[in-house]
Model the fold of this input.
Amino acid sequence: MPGFELFGPEERKEVNDVLETGIMMRYGFDGPRKGIWKAGELETLISEKLNCGYTQLVSSGTAALTTAFAALGIGASDEVIMPTFTFVASFECVLSVGAVPVLVDVDETLTLDPAAVRRAITPKTKCVMPVHMCGAMADMEALMAICKEHKLVLLEDACQSFGGSYKGKALGTIGDAGTFSFDFVKIVTCAEGGAIVTNSKDLAVKLDGYSDHGHDHVGVDRGADLHPFLGYNFRISELHAAVGLAQVRKLDQFIGLNKKNYTQLKAILSQVPEISFRTIPDPAGDIYTFLSWFLPTEEAMRAVMAELKQQNAAAGNMYWYEHNWHYIRKWDHLAKVATLNRLNEAQEKALRALRTDGFPASDKVMGRCVSTAIGMLWTEEQTRERGEKIVAAVRKVMAKFTSPLTY
Ligand SMILES: *Cc1c(COP(=O)(O)O)cnc(C)c1O
Done:
C-alpha cells in the first residue's frame, strides 16, 4: 500500500543530490544550488502526470487543505460540506480558516452521498469537499452538478488517492482544486509533504504566495518580494521533495502491484455470497490501496473482527467504525469542542450540535464495512493466506448467525 514499502536507491540518489550542494531550501541560492531544484522538478512532474495546469507543493496534506481553502476564499462562517468518514485533518483545515464543517452522510461509495449533500445546503454553504477515501473516488458527476447548480466551490480532498482517476481525469483535477498528502503512509511519500493542484492560473498564484508568507515571487531578489496578501509558511524542503521525486516516478509500479494483489484478494472474497463490495463510481480509476467489503449486518462484522483477532489475523483489516481517527463516532474531541484556543461563534455552535446529531445512514454503512489494506510486496501465497483467513472467519460467523440453534 504505502510508498515506503519500496524505498530504495532511487530515493537515496535524489536526496544525495541535495546533500551534495547543501541547499535544502526550495527558493533562492541560485548559484550554490548548481541547477538543483527538486521541489520545482516535482511540481512539473506531477502536473504532467496528472495532466493539470498547476501543482503547488507544501509541507503536508493538512497544509495543502488549509492553503487551498484560503486561496479559494473560504473563511469566517462559510459552511463547508464534508463527509462523516475521513481523516481528522479534513475538518481541522476547515476550522483553521475560520469556516464551519458541515458533516454529511456517506453511502456505499464510502464518500459523500450526493442526496445528503443537497439536503445540507444552506445560504451559508460555500464549498463541497468530497474525500476520495482509501484510494477510490466519490461520485464526481453528481457532486459537480450540485456545485454548478448552487454555485459552490468544489475542493477534492484526494490526500489518500494520488494517482487515481475518474472517467479519465486524475482525481484532484476535476474540481476547482484538489489536495494530496505525501505523509509516510500514503501511496507516495516524501516523509512529510503535500500538494494542491488546479487548472486556474489565478488560484495557482494565490497558492504559491500563501504557502510562503505571501511573498509574491516576482523578482529575482527574494528579499525584495512584496506581499499582495497575508500568508503562512507551509513550504516543503528540498530533501522532502527529493524523496517525492523518486517516489512519483515509481507510482505506476506501485499501483500495478496493488492492483495485482487487490484483484487476487477480491476473487477469493467473492466466493462468499454474504460479502459485498464498495461501490466504486469508476473502478478503473482505483489505486487499489484497500479492498473495502461489507457484511449484511454490523453484528456479523463485529463477530468476524472478533474471530480474526482471536486468530491473530486482524492486522490490516480496518474496521473504521471503531477507529479513533477516521469516523465521526469517535471524534469526541470535535463534538466537545476541545480546542486550545477559542473558535468563532458559528464554529462553536455547529460543533456543539454534533453532540445530538446522529448519523444513522452513515452508521449503517460503516458498521458493516471493513477495508483490507493491500500490501504491495505480498506474494501470491501471502495474499491467498490472508484471503482464506477472512473467508474462513466470515463462513464461521455466518453459519452461526443462520443456524436455527442460535435462535
Ligand atoms: C493523510 C490525510 C490528510 C492529511 O495529510 P497529512 O500529510 O498527514 O497532513 C488529509 N486528508 C485525508 C483524507 C488524509 O488521509
Summary: The chain has a mean pLDDT of 96. The pocket of pyridoxal-5'-phosphate is lined by residues 60-62, 86-87, 89-90, 131, 157, 159-160, 181, 183, 194 (CB under 6 Å). The chain is about 40% helix and 15% strand.
